[in-house]
Amino acid sequence: xxxxxxxxxxxxxxxxxxxxxxxxxxxxxxxxxxxxxxxxxxxxxxxxxxxxxxxxxxxxxxxxxxxxxxxxxxxxxxxxxxxxxxxxxxxxxxxxxxxxxxxxxxxxxxxxxxxxxxxxxxxxxxxxxxxxxxxxxxxxxxxxxxxxxxxxxxxxxxxxxxxxxxxxxxxxxxxxxxxxxxxxxxxxxxxxxxxxxxxxxxxxxxxxxxxxxxxxxxxxxxxxxxxxxxxxxxxxxxxxxxxxxxxxxxxxxxxxxxxxxxxxxxxxxxxxxxxxxxxxxxxxxxxxxxxxxxxxxxxxxxxxxxxxxxxxxxxxxxxxxxxxxxxxxxxxxxxxxxxxxxxxxxxxxxx
Length: 351
What we know:
Elements: E1 6-12, H1 14-20, E2 36-41, H2 54-58, E3 63-67, E4 71-72, E5 78-79, E6 88-97, E7 102-112, H3 117-128, H4 170-185, H5 192-204, H6 212-223, H7 225-339, H8 345-350
Parallel strand pairs: 1-3
Antiparallel strand pairs: 1-2, 4-5, 6-7
Region (Disordered): 146-175
Domain Ubiquitin carboxyl-terminal hydrolase 7 ICP0-binding: 51-142
GO molecular function: catalytic activity, acting on a protein
């Protein structure tokens, strides 16, 4: 079968990232099978598509995946992209919420390849809608697609290489050696692959500053660079999956612990309320008993009052009768006293 005379160019836009990331947990930047696709004749000059040096890394590949960068001004009109140098790299940021199990795209940012995560943390928080001092965990994710394709040394599509037209200076050699040492001592540094490729490119053409053994090791490492990067990316992907599973496991463990603590708290509160309920029942029984005694005493008082009232009513005629007899007795006594009085008795007594 004849070799195809065209290339397939897949162009992803910002809206593709926003639409695709978040519908489900999709950890790659974008699904290129769901973006706009162009079939371009191989003879078409690359400058027509504004991709520059991509010709060097894609001349052997049938498919070319691109991200179309468009910057908009105040009135949503396209403006010139920011000025970039060979030291700048484009990073895409996604936010994973472990509590909701959601993943969403928050934006992209050009950073210096030698920058540290702390240098961009403020901008990352701003894109995510967090406060500048919010603590977040940053993870570097490299898709498996970066390990595919043909392997043709440092200029292949699996890594970025800086070709130096001249022999590096002693200072550049020392910097490259230090960069190589840092990359190998900590494989999880930001943009390790590009730094490692740049250091190997510099050291491979260095005329001074390296021993024969070091030069031989650098050349051998450079020859096996693609295999190393492939193994590294596989390891990093597996490690990312492990970290994700570990994070989810920790979250579930934390949730179980929290639920257990809440369960114990509810149990203690339930027992406390049960005790209070018993105390209230006792108080209620005492109150009922006192109320029953009060009603009984009240009824006795009412009966006694009725009896007293009845006696009072029956006593009134007797009082009137006694009063009448007393009046009659007083009148009789008065008449008796008058009858016994002797006239002149007082004069005789005076003499």
